[in-house]
Amino acid sequence: MNAPHASRLLANPLLDDWTAQHGLPPFDRIRAVHFVPAFAVALKAHREEIDAIAGAEASPCFDNTVAAFDRSGRLVTRIRQVLSNLTASASAAELQAVERELAAPLAAHGNAIYLHAGLFARIDTPRTRGARRSGSTPSSCACSSASTSISSARAQSFPARRRSATPR
Known about the structure:
The structure is a single chain. By secondary structure, this protein is mainly alpha-helical. The chain has one domain (about 5-155): Neurolysin, domain 3 (Orthogonal Bundle). It has eight helices and no strands. Helix 2 packs parallel to helix 5 and helix 2 (about 35-55) packs across helix 6 (about 115-125). The longest helix has 22 residues, at about 95-115. The chain is elongated. The model is unreliable at about 5-10 and about 145-168 (pLDDT under 50).
């Protein structure tokens, strides 16, 4: 990484810890130019989190697969929420250009996550399917906590496999 690029990333308020009251982002420091490099960092980190979940050596169970998937991508979500907030409330030509520039990479990222064969294989194992239905972790699972819950939005967004080839 070259020095000017590194200093630009280090000065990116979207990648800093937000220390304002209630954890609010530093809106006064955020500029349209911060979004593309921040998303590049966040998308890469999210892909690495998903690859780690999919490649985990431990037997799949709710905590180390489904709950881990639910916890992944927090930085992407945080940055996306700021962009959405700003484009909905104070949209400017610069922000609209950022939205257009990021549309394809964000869509491709979502597809890569939800079509990740290794992740799907872990989620689709009989033990994690049983944990989804019963709401608990099977006793044979090496995971320690059975009380982890998945957000309903994430659960609903994960594509279910179609058991029928008949169009609906």
